[in-house]
Amino acid sequence: MNTPRFTLALFAMLAVGIPAAGLAHAFLDHAVPAVGSTVAAAPKEVRLYFSEAVEPLFSGAELATAEGQAIATAPVTVAPGDGAQLILPLPPLHPGKYRVRWHVVSVDTHRTEGDFTFEIRP
Amino acid sequence: MYPLRSAALVAVPLAAALASIDPHPAAAHGFAGDRFFPATLLTDDPFVADELSLPTFTRDPTAADGTQTFDFDFDLSKRLTPDLGVTLSQGWQHLKAPGIPGVTGLTGFSAELDYQLFTDGPHEATALVGLASSWAHTGRVQALGADDFTTLSPLVNFGKGFGDLPETLPWLRPIAVTGNLSLDFPTKTQSNGDPHPNNVNYGFALEYSLEYLQHHVKDIGLGAPFDRMIPIVEASFSTGLNRDAGGQTVGTIQPGIIWAGQYVQIGAEAIIPVNRASGHGIGAMVQLHFYLDDIFPNSIGRPLFSR
Predict the structure, then answer these.
(1) What is the pLDDT of residues B127-173, one digit of tens each?
(2) Which value, in Å, is the radius of gyration of the alpha carbons in chain B?
(3) In this structure, what DSSP letter does residue B193 have?
(4) Is the dihedral of CA B176, B252, B226, B56 positive or negative?
């Protein structure tokens, strides 16, 4: 086997294969309110920014208290014009700690999930 | 009992058991719940995947006799089903011994069959069992010391993230550990008077995921590329059990860092031998690693057979 030619051929195949548009696992890039943050006023929504566009039908987010008690919210939506951004509308919230749990399926069907907390200052 | 037979007594039922177990959905690419496990450079991963390491370049610590080696390795992991995967590996080496012209060539072919035992998302835990094999006469035996015998090694690999620790310990939650345990069954007891012992191999990787810290615990303002970095310390040891090698241990400890992107990851580690028998001086290892399931999600990045 000619090792250098074999290696170059594999590199070429991989370089061609890497898509120009995002098609990989969707990682959370950042959120508003920020992960683990404390905010002064109750937010009206949580915005989740992902590294890849997600499939709205198979993606979602839920809100709970820090103790795990579910809080009803309006349905999650994808931001207009940005398939990588989810919006979770929030009901009026009291001061305290809250947990956001998200799960998304990127457009190439890879599933990822995660959770984080934020706190509303008294 | 001849070692091949004793190995086969373990390997054949294991392979049959693996093939007969009903597969269930598994997360590829090293996910267990919120936790992303990167592909480690030294120790085996606790998940089946569609990934390619090309290349892994290693400058080993200088051997006790002064020999210096440079390795260029290739590893391809492919899922057959969502839970059953194979890994094929081939190495190429340049060896320079004192007073002797340098030698280059293939170091030997190895193959591994793995079955994903479980993946527990809430506890960020995952484990697999498998059978590794290094094949006889697939490298330069005389010039590079490649094996003239096949070795079969049943193995278990596991991973555990600590994201389920209490919220009161936020700075510990990005920690994860992976570990390996395997037992070597060489198919020859000796070659030209050199004994081939049974070895027990064990290792671990201790990881601190800045990606987990930034995206699951607390946004501390890390931007690219730091929000995808994982500082890591790996350690791997092999202890002989018999045939003049009883109790003899060799191994390395490798501190380093991995950057995990969307399609590739890059890793670099220093190699520190644990004793004189493991070499002296500091070596180094760098690796370029491709996530085939992300690069080719609709073709070779998928399991060959899936429901």
Answers:
(1) 999 999 999 999 888 888 888 999 999 999 999 999 999 989 999 99
(2) 20
(3) T
(4) negative
The gap from C-alpha B30 to its chain's centroid, in whole angstroms, comes to 13
Nearest CA in chain A to B93: A3
The amino acid at residue B78 is K
Whether the CB-CB separation of B199 and B161 falls below 8 Å is answered with no
A43 touches chain B (CB under 8 A): no
- What does DSSP say about strands B125-134 and B151-161: parallel, antiparallel, or unpaired? antiparallel
Contact B33, B123 (CB under 8 A): yes
Altogether, the residues listed in chain A come to a count of: 122
A88 token code pair: 């979770």
Please state, in angstroms and rounded to a whole number, the distance separating the CA atoms of residues B75 and B42: 12
Average pLDDT of the residues of chain A: 87
What's the pTM? 0.86
Q: What are phi and psi of B49, to 5 degrees?
A: -160, 170
Q: Is A112 helix (H, G, I), strand (E, B) or coil?
A: strand
Closest in A10, A29, A35 to B218, CB measured: A35
Cis amide bond preceding A75, omega within 30:
no
